[in-house]
Amino acid sequence: MNLLHTYPNIKTKPATNRLALRTISVALTIALLMSMFTVVMAGVASAAWPEFQGNPNRTGQITNGVPPTTTPTVTIANLGLSLYGINVEPVLETVNGITYAYVLYPSGALSGASIAKIDVSNPTPALIWTTSLSARGVSQLSTPYLDNDYIYVGISLSATTSELASVNKITGVSTTLVSGIAGQINTPITKYGNYLYFGTYNGNNEYFQYNLSTNTYTKFIGYSDFYWAGAYSNGTHVFFGGDGGYLYCLPVASFGGSASSSNTVTLPAGAGDVRSSISRDGNYLYFTSKGGYLWRILVSNIASVSSVRVPNATTPLISTSTPAISQAEHIYVGYYSSLGGGGNGGVVTVPINNFTQAAVKTIYSGDAVQASPIVYTVGSTDYIYFTTNVATGKGYCYTYTAGATTGGLAWSAGGSNYALQGFASDNGYLVYGDNSGKLYIMK
Cβ(430)–Cβ(395) under 8 Å? Predict the structure, then answer.
């Protein structure tokens, strides 16, 4: 069905979960059972897709459950149409066999920001709670981070103001952590150790390190803005790209200060803005830039830089796609030809062990792909999942086996609208949202 089933006793900010208004005796019984089975419950809960691209290395690998490899069954959760659609990946977890999606989306006539928890296992996707985070807002472009008890959310209140909040994943109650942030939080929220990382656009060129232990933050001032450029950390250093064609590398223990030649790599002329997050495989970091480049940088020496053009050296196009890296050791990125997301585009691949222009192969050629692919591997065959950002956009699954000259279509499904960001996956489900405010759930 195409309607979102709503449990009856839901309120917003603070949100009320579906058990909140039952009788005291039932609540006490539940509390007793929860206390008896705390250990058991903890053992069967998993946040299998807790962040942008699923894991700290941003590889986009699907490892928990088998996603659809043939034409899927599709259900739809309709969160309502506003001026802006769903522009971020959801984050997912499975608890006691039930898979939940947490979705940041604009809501209401003034495009305020809200977050919803949805039971995607239900044949009619069921709303557990929704929380209004702001009455006004703009397009929300920061994928949240799902931790053990909280979802950490970057909220763009306007084109020039943002805040960081935590949302209790059981109750939906939100708490503001940092207010009055200049600019929009337009990067995924990243967590390494006790720190959250995120950057801003249209503000003061700031990238933040938020300490969850002390509830304090430190700012780094880059040469330019940060847009979609999520961070990666190897434990001692944190890496992130930026507009203007920069890659920054800062010590975790002394994060802060300003951009300089000692903490910044300036990419070659024509690189364009770095608007992808950073993936890691082995000794290398991978990311794309708008000049039509897929970059590879040695972790131990970030001045060691190599690249291939996307989709080819003759007619490179734009890429803002975070590289997905499969267990079969292939890298996948999307590309497109116009800044609005329309026009032609596609997905290409290059093997990790032969990172050369001659080895770049086309997986899909068609509509614009601004999203970051994700990938599931069976033997030597990869299943690549992505969305297209055009008026007739939808979700696709293509296959690729090492040695093939191109990819093959397995299926396409979903809506018919702009899909800026791509899929998340857990427990065999694939989930993405589009500009119509709909969340597509595939199994």
Answer: yes
Q: Where exactly are the structural domains of the chain?
A: 277-420
Distance between CA atoms of residues 104 and 180, nearest Å? 20
Residue 251: asked if its preceding bond is cis (omega within 30°), the reply is no
Task: Report CA-CA distances (Å) from 22 to 16, 19, 30, 367.
Answer: 11, 6, 11, 49
DSSP three-state, residue 354? helix
- Which two three-digit tokens encode residue 114? 């809200």
Tracing tokens 């967590």 back to the chain, one arrives at 191
Strand partners, 201: 184
User: In 3-state terms, what secondary structure has residue 134?
Assistant: strand
Q: How far is residue 125 from each of residues 4, 68, 437, measured CA to CA in Å?
A: 6, 18, 14
Structure pTM?
0.91
The DSSP output letter for 372 is P
Rounded distance, CA 309 to CA 295, Å? 9
Specify the length of the chain in residues. Answer: 443
Q: What is the pLDDT of residue 107?
A: 80
Q: How far apart are CA 23 and CA 393, in angstroms?
A: 46
Q: Rounded to whole angstroms, how far apart are CA atoms 285 and 303?
A: 12
Cα(260)–Cα(263) distance, integer angstroms? 6
- Please report, for residues 187, 222, 225, 414, the alpha-carbon distance to residue 204 in angstroms, rounded to integers and kept in the order given: 15, 8, 7, 38
DSSP 203-245: SSSEEEEEETTTTEEEEEE-SS--SS---EE-SSEEEEEETTT
Residue 390 to residues 17, 187, 216, 229, 386: CA-CA distances in angstroms?
Answer: 36, 22, 41, 22, 13
Q: Are 439 and 77 in contact (CB under 8 A)?
A: yes
Query: Which tens digits make up the pLDDT trace of 375-430?
Result: 999 999 999 999 999 999 999 999 999 999 999 999 999 999 999 999 999 999 99
CATH of domain 277-420: 2.130.10.10
Residue written as tokens 């005796």? 25
Question: Do β-strands 190-192 and 284-289 pair in parallel, antiparallel, or remain unpaired?
Answer: unpaired
